[in-house]
Amino acid sequence: MEVSLSKESETPTSQECWALLERIEACAGLRRAPRLREFLDYVARRSLRDGCIQIHEQEIGTAVFGRPETYDTSVDNIVRANATELRKRIETYFESEGSQESLIVEIPRGSYVPVFRYRPAPATPILAGDTEAPLAEVSRAIPAARRVPLPWLIVGLVIVALSAGCISLWVQNRAMYSSLYPWKDEPAVSALWGSFLGNQKDTDLVLADASYSLVQDLANKSFNLDDYLSRNYMSQLQDPDPRMAAALARISNWGLGSPSEVEVAQRILALDPAHQRIHLYFARKYMPDLIARDNVILFGSRFGNPWAELFESRMNFVFNPQNPNQIINRVPAKGEPATYEYTASGAFGYCIVAYLPTPDHNSSALLVQGSSGEPTQAAGDFLLTESRMADFRKMVGASKFPYFELLLKTSWVKGTPINSTIVAYRTYAGSN
């Protein structure tokens, strides 16, 4: 009897490793995560090309996430958090799309050096005696009292094989579905986002118009939704200095946006990888008939996204139109202040998150209004993290989220949100 060595004892070639990495980076779980792909590329390059046997957290933070060389890893855990997420997505790949890969890669916990190895070969049972014996001879070796007629034995084996194949296919399809729609397996996250992706309506994700808020600041004027839709505000951007007047006219035609809003929008769009339910718009391209028909997610207060005007009269927490560094608490609860102050140059800020019905009460709306980019990012983390949403669901005491408002206070270090806490919230009757 010949004995062949399994491939487990072999060392994968560099070409095999890079080819595997390309397939992993193209999978559903990573193709929309550029920073995780960059993370994987970096540690693979340091290991495969540079021969490093150890890769330090601070090195990755500097090279991949743009942190200074002396940043404090005990305060900023961005590398550890992304490493955890990367490990999960790699594991998901090998459980779904890559279930037939003979070569696998892992990033062991406590290390950032990827380890490549071949999958263990499945154990194959061998019948004692002549392994080449025909099936009929094996059947004759069974005592007569327990012998199964040969045709029925073959049929039984076929049924077992088909059943095993169906089960395997179901498991693979389930794993694939879970990798595409992981939020559906997270009860608290699903309780909110199911309102937008599970009610057969489209959801419009509308980014703020930073050009609009900038010209209001420069001109020291404020306009309403009607002015914005008719573009009447552009004719009111007059200034005694002709150069300033020309600059205001140019800026009003720009399509400026916020990178933080775009980052959160990409994460929300990833909830619908088939692009069937969520559609992205810029505020100046959005239309009234859409908000009357669809669910809507609005980024920015009315100063940057005039569509928020349709909701802010019903909100308790709003940005003060007279003070850009203040949020008004219209009806303070016991122990709450009437205003929340912050500074643009400070190390903390706020984000208002409001889940409300649309004006005609036929759909749902979600408003995300950050005092700067970091609170907006923190709100995205909050709304898309199971543990945070589960804690909030316990606070409101309901299995299905009612309509609500909450005020998040966020601290950050050098542009990265570190933590956020709920400082106040309100719930309202009804839900979608």
Structure summarized in a few sentences:
The chain is of the alpha/beta class and 432 residues long.
Layout of secondary structure:
Layout lengths: L13 H12 L8 H16 L7 H9 L12 H18 L7 E4 L8 E4 L16 H6 L9 H31 L6 H11 L5 E5 L2 H10 L5 H6 L1 H4 L6 H12 L5 H11 L8 E5 L5 H4 L3 E5 L9 H4 L4 E3 L6 E4 L9 E3 L6 E10 L6 E7 L2 H12 L1 H11 L6 E11 L2 E13 L4
Parallel strand pairs: 3-4, 3-5, 5-10
Antiparallel strand pairs: 1-2, 6-7, 7-8, 9-10, 9-11, 11-12
Helix pairs in contact: 1-2, 2-3, 4-6, 8-11, 12-15
Structure description:
The chain has 432 residues and is of the alpha/beta class. It folds into two domains: 7-118, no CATH class; 187-209 and 257-428, no CATH class. The protein is built from 16 helices and twelve strands. The protein has helices at 14-25, 34-49, 57-65, 78-95, 135-140, 150-180, 187-197, 210-219, 225-230, 232-235, 242-253, 259-269, 288-291, 309-312, 373-384, 386-396, and strands at 103-106, 115-118, 203-207, 278-282, 295-299, 317-319, 326-329, 339-341, 348-357, 364-370, 403-413, 416-428. The strands form three sheets. The protein has a seven-stranded mixed β-sheet with strand order 4-3-5-10-9-11-12. A three-stranded antiparallel β-sheet has the order 6-7-8, with no helix packed on it. The chain has a two-stranded antiparallel sheet with strand order 1-2.
